Amino acid sequence: MTQKLADMRRDYTRDGLSEADAPLEPFALFQSWFADAVKTEQLPVEPNAMTLATVDGNGRPHCRVLLLKALDDRGFTFFTNYESAKGQHLAGSPFAAMTFFWPTLERQVRIEGRVEKVSAEESDAYFQVRPLGSRLGAWASPQSRVIDGRAELEALLADTEQRFLDTAPHCPPHWGGYRLLPERIEFWQGRASRLHDRLNYRLEAGVWKRERLAP
Ligand SMILES: Cc1cc2nc3c(=O)[nH]c(=O)nc-3n(C[C@H](O)[C@H](O)[C@H](O)COP(=O)(O)O)c2cc1C
């Protein structure tokens, strides 16, 4: 097993990232890379899937995969249960990091910054476009809590279905969006022999500074 893992390697030769091709602020570059990922990455990869890291009250990091659901010039929005483990971490330490990995393109983007809850109106607007099953699931599942077994979840769902038999489910108070307001965005393009391109954008007094990092 160890030997096989040690032998697993791929040389990255698809593309490069030069200062000449990179805009002075990072959002346009993210939009352009994201459009490439949507075009290029093959199913079952979800191009909007990313890893989100949060920190608990003991300073320990936790990460999990989530879906990016909105992007504007304020930041990067995802939706979840506010009472989940990640929701509790963010209540105690409102900072997070997210990483996108687009393997076909040999690209990674790392985003770090402060996190805020989106408005109740924004959460509700997104909640309303989710399929009915997902809306019921958001009401039924006490995300991150220990449950007795699958049967408990199914019983919770059955109760929720009864509750919303005659009315469409509205957005639960314990569910909604968070927006990560980026302070750093790093674009990584794999290159041959591990001499990758890394362009890092840092927000300094409201102005994006761009710098190249050693691979
Ligand atoms: C591809 C994929 C997409 C996911 N998208 C979400 C999402 O958008 N929101 C969410 O709350 N959990 C999502 N999850 C589940 C999370 O990874 C995680 O299990 C859940 O949010 C509980 O995390 P926590 O206990 O750290 O709060 C997704 C998992 C995968 C594998």
Largest sheet: 9 strands, antiparallel
The radius of gyration over CA amounts to 20 Å
Shape: globular
Percentage beta strand:
25-35%
**Which cofactors or ions or other ligands sit in this model?**
flavin mononucleotide
Could you say which structural class the secondary elements and strand pairing correspond to? alpha+beta
What assembly state would you assign to the polypeptide chains in this entry? single chain
The separation of the N and C termini measures 28 Å
Low-confidence stretches: none
Helix content estimate? 25-40%
Instruction: Please count the helical segments.
Output: 6
Number of strands: 9
Mean pLDDT: 95
Order of helices and strands: HHEEEEHEEHHHEEE
Structural features, described:
With 215 residues, the protein is α+β, with helices and mostly antiparallel strands. Helices cover 29% and strands 33% of the residues. The chain has six helices and nine strands; from the N terminus they run H-H-E-E-E-E-H-E-E-H-H-H-E-E-E. The chain has helices at 2-7, 26-40, 85-92, 120-129, 132-140, 150-163; strands spanning 49-55, 61-67, 70-72, 75-81, 95-102, 107-117, 175-189, 197-204, 207-212. Strands 1, 2, 3, 4, 5, 6, 7, 8 and 9 form a nine-stranded antiparallel beta sheet that branches. Strand 5 and strand 6 (107-117) form a beta hairpin. Helix 5 crosses helix 6 (150-163). It is globular and about 60 Å long. The protein starts with a helix and ends with a strand. The model has no long low-confidence stretch (mean pLDDT 95). The site of flavin mononucleotide has 16 residues, from strand 2, strand 4 and helix 3.
